[in-house]
Design brief:
Number of strands: 4
Strand content: 35-45%
Distance between the termini: 48 Å
Order of helices and strands: EEEEH
Length: about 80
């Protein structure tokens, strides 16, 4: 996962990882780059459909322009050859 750390006028793209602490029921984010106290950090989830957001992040975007519907197409075994 990538996020953006803004310190003053600089924008730094940093790589980070997340982990869930079951004891505390908290999500922890760890940065591979040092951010200073007061820096804003924005998480970029990328272009994903709502089904991915729901399963992996627990939320959906009502007007997600990247939302898709997966259809499984095939021939029914009951159709004549």
């Amino acid at each position: 996962m990538y996020c953006i750390c803004t310190g003053g006028i600089f924008v730094i793209f940093i790589q980070m990882l997340t982990d869930f602490d079951e004891e505390l029921s908290e999500c922890h984010c760890y940065s591979h780059t040092v951010c200073q106290p007061g820096d804003q950090v924005f998480i970029c989830y990328g272009t994903r459909p709502n089904s991915d957001f729901l399963v992996h992040n627990g939320f959906v975007y009502p007007d997600n322009p990247n939302d898709t519907v997966q259809l499984k197409l095939g021939k029914s075994p009951y159709c004549a050859p």
